[in-house]
Structures
1.
Amino acid sequence: MALPWGDSDIATAQVIVLTPIGTSKFLKKKHFSLQNPHYSQKNRIFAVLIFVTKKAMKVPEHYYDEIFDFAGQWDVPSRCGLKIRDYNGKKIIIVTELYQENTGTSVTYNGASLAEQICQAKGISTDNMIYIECNPDTNSKLSFYDEEFFEVSFEKNDEGHLCQPTYRQLAPEIIKEYGI
């Protein structure tokens, strides 16, 4: 199967098949090889391809100093890359999405809880941190896997827990200033 962006890196793909309303199964998943797809368009099936690559999804180790295991949503075991740096009397906490190496909750989906778990494990006050989420460059040809850094600010609820994250994408000069 020839793809416009080439298929040399693609190992498998997952198809999420949405069948028309009124059929016995509205949503089902199928796994298939790109060389032998098992998906058809009969019965007005709508499909979305999600490609998983062999080498493009590996996160380079320079993005993190350690792998941090955390309790994701519903306490699902999850992992992220972690770097902690000093900056003007504060601790910069950089969490990196690990994609294939994390089968649990993403860092973005669980930001407030993850920030609290890191602060507790590392003895950092949540009032003395700059929390940054990193979507690393994975050498993918798909633009949504390009490198991005977001500074995340949190509110605190009545119990003092972090909540309501606000994201601000960091410009290259700020990334350089922070020493990331």
2.
Amino acid sequence: MGKGFSFLTATIIVFTLIFTTSNLYSTSLDTTQEKDLGFGLKLELTDENNNTFTENYINQMIKIKNFILLKNKKISPAEAEKITSYLMKYSYKYDIEPELTASIIYKESRFNVKAISPNGAKGLGQLMPHTCKSMGLNDCFEVEGNIKGTVRYIKYLLDLWKNYEKQIEFALASYLLGPNKVKCYNNIIYKPKAKKFIDEVLAITQLIKQLPLSEFD
């Protein structure tokens, strides 16, 4: 491959990524920094607070925003961007796959920030009042707080089952049914209700990863 060709390819890819991302986060990504634009074709964007976003991070943002808009037609692009930005922020902070977080929130509330269950679970992640309190939340419906609490709770559950072969399955069953019930019945992950939830969350997680980067009409 000649140098001229690789430079042209890199330029096109960078332009495409910057154009796509500027449409997605036009209010938060003001400046760009291009690094390592050789055979690796690495790209980084820096916002007004000097937070750096890698190409993979940007792609995840776009796919999750697309998924939100695809699954909840009542959400505006601006609302989808807000949910996506907080979801990405706290998923990365607590070392959780953003796609997994998005999948759980979709299953719990369909991205309805005002969702409330018959049992009293509230907000995007359908957190119970006592869980909100334990996560330090004053308002279960507040978007950033609910997402932060949801991700922290997922992290707590994953840590709880970290020594188990089926860690993620036990964590998801615990999210659905409560960790105490799962502790009492270790085979609960194979019961129909828990298994359906686990299988669907994991399938949606993979679906989000495979979504195209182009926006949906």
